[in-house]
Automatic annotation (TrEMBL):
This is NarL family two-component system response regulator LiaR. PROSITE patterns: HTH_LUXR_2, RESPONSE_REGULATORY. Coiled coil: none annotated. It comes from Sutcliffiella tianshenii. Its main location: cytoplasm. SMART domains: HTH_LUXR, REC. CDD domains: LuxR_C_like, REC_NarL-like. Residues 142-207 form the HTH luxR-type domain.
Amino acid sequence: MIRVLFVDDHEMVRIGVTAYLSAQPDIEVIAEADDGKIAVELALLHKPDIILMDLVMKEMDGIEATKRIIDQWPDAKIIIVTSFLDDEKVYPALEAGATSYMLKTSKASDIANAVRSTYKGQSILEPEVAGKMMKRMRQKNDHFLHEELTNREMEILLLMTQGKTNQEIADELFIALKTAKVHVSNILAKLQVQDRTQAVIYAFKHNLAK
């Protein structure tokens, strides 16, 4: 049996989902809580296989409860079940240590399957949440790219945004034209772009140009 702790401050939600999960042959709801503070206590007391965690609750929200549980029990598997898709809820919840993220609009059968999948070590994310995370990862990766540039390469990139040619860059920086070309090639490689135009677009996109 997969032992579940269900945390939600809406009694009717708890009743409905608990009834469905308890009817499953492989799932058992061993405890319920209507607040994050109580959830932390029950989680550490019972060590359930899965914790279904609401986000918005009165005394302690699900994000803080998730942090406290993970801090004291790193192996806990927590599924966020909420109505919220806004960034200030999604990212903090996953960064706090939640394994999966579901919406309350999901079918009860989807939540049950998420319990089973998370129990097996998988991470289940709503499509909208997965999209947000992919976008965030791309942004982080992009940001990392220009951090690889040396001070000289960053200087040359800024000159490129001003429309300077390789010869003009060489003249302004008092370096050989060949050296300027090498720097430009290195910049394109590090930014993973194919030409100067794309490098300039990258610079403006990331507010690097003055």
